[in-house]
Write a structure and sequence with these properties.
This protein has about 70 residues and is mostly helical. The protein contains two helices and no strands.
Length: about 70
């Protein structure tokens, strides 16, 4: 990290005043790295998590409905 522009006795009115230009959100948001290519095992894991989430959503909905009746 470069610290040449930062002075400790400087009045910092905003938190962003302490950041370097490369750390500001408008500069960070302009970077786009694209989609990460996942391995087949990772894809399978994410699909399994989706199925598990849908199963659990159905189970919780059923239990809530059953307890109300």
């Amino acid at each position: 990290m470069k610290m040449k522009n930062f002075q400790l006795d400087q009045d910092l009115l905003w938190p962003a005043d302490a950041l370097e230009p490369e750390q500001l959100s408008e500069n960070v948001q302009n970077r786009h790295y694209g989609k990460k290519q996942l391995s087949p095992g990772a894809k399978l894991l994410f699909w399994a998590l989706r199925v598990y989430a849908l199963f659990m959503l159905g189970l919780v909905t059923y239990q809530a409905w059953a307890n109300l009746h």
